[in-house]
Specification:
Elements lengths: L4 E6 L4 H11 L4 E7 L11 H5 L8 E2 L2 H6 L3 E4 L3 H14 L2 E4 L6 H10 L4 E4 L5 H16 L5 E8 L9 H14 L3 H4 E2 L14 E7 L5 E9 L2 E9 L3 H13 L6 E3 L1 H4 L5
Bound molecules: nicotinamide-adenine-dinucleotide.
The site of nicotinamide-adenine-dinucleotide has 26 residues, from helix 1.
């Protein structure tokens, strides 16, 4: 319908791309305006709705990212870091808001979102689920309340196809935990342990990564002290929770000023 938010999906044939297309087809107030695919891939030219299993939507997957973004109000990106950065630049030029879901970006690549956010609303979310947004808030609070005698470890498991580690969600949890403790994550992050590591350093935030099967995403924060452990966790049993959050974030950008936001803003946890 006219007045509906026009959403463009990057990587429309990907696991999350297809989920996002399905979510749009079930959500009032928005419409799939375009979808991209990797240049040279078989999916270019195919109907995005048919590929996503919701029947023809009359939107062919294109490899012309600039033209696709120019025809949208908001672009939803769950692809690869290089694709994400190019899309952020194109969206900022075209005046389209961005839902930035891709993980594994370098600090220099992340900085591209800050640049884009001067021109358009950018929702940067390594995890778009309601549950993980809550978990990060709780973890921050717990880290603030519990002293350094509680060693913090973040454990995560994902499917065998995931290409970055620790997961973006684990790192976002780490950022929240470090905020709670009033330190910089980079100063206390311990992501690799192998061989003769020596004793654990007080104040470190450790990360452990498991990969296998089809796990959509599991995260646990462990606060371990002498005599007790406190566990906070989240298990996603379907990628649909991420798509629901991403499309909710897309609708939320309507009427927002340019700026860098996260899921806490979208869900009203933070002004
Ligand atoms: P995927 O490999 O299934 O999908 C990525 C898609 O992008 C593929 O179809 C690929 O062909 C396509 N692609 C590659 N180059 C392209 C280009 N130049 N133009 C257009 N499309 C291109 O991966 P996935 O499981 O959907 O995950 C994608 C990203 O989203 C990862 O970084 C993952 O960690 C992240 N993710 C984030 C959340 C969240 O809540 N924020 C949830 C799940 C996954």
């Amino acid at each position: 319908m006219s007045g509906d938010l026009k959403i463009g999906i990057l990587g429309g044939a990907g696991r999350m791309g297809q989920m996002n297309i399905r979510q749009i087809s079930m959500t009032d107030g928005c419409v799939l305006a375009g979808a991209t695919g990797r240049p040279g891939s078989d999916v270019v030219g195919q109907d995005a709705g048919t590929l996503a299993g919701v029947g023809s939507l009359g939107v062919a997957i294109t490899d012309d990212t600039a033209a696709m973004i120019a025809g949208t109000d908001v672009v939803v990106d769950f692809t690869l870091p290089d694709v994400a950065v190019e899309a952020a630049q194109l969206a900022a030029q075209a005046g389209a808001a961005i839902i930035a879901g891709t993980t594994g970006l370098s600090p220099a690549q992340e900085a591209e979102y800050e640049k884009a956010a001067r021109h358009v609303p950018v929702v940067r979310a390594a995890n778009t689920s309601v549950g993980v947004t809550l978990l990060i808030a709780l973890a921050e609070q717990a880290a603030n309340l519990l002293g350094v005698e509680y060693d913090i470890e973040v454990l995560e498991m994902h499917h065998r196809h995931k290409i970055d580690a620790p997961s973006g969600t684990a790192l976002a949890l780490g950022e929240g935990l470090a905020r709670g403790r009033g330190v910089n994550l980079e100063d206390v992050k311990q992501a690799v342990r192998d061989g003769h590591t020596g004793e654990r350093k007080a104040g470190d935030i450790g990360f452990a990564t498991l990969r296998g099967g089809d796990v959509a995403g599991e995260h646990e924060v462990i606060f371990a002290a002498e005599g007790e452990r406190v566990l906070l966790g989240h298990k996603a049993s379907s990628r649909q929770v991420f798509a629901a959050g991403a499309i909710r974030a897309a609708l939320w950008t309507k009427g927002q000023s340019p700026g860098l936001y996260n899921m806490r803003h979208v869900l009203g946890f933070e002004d």
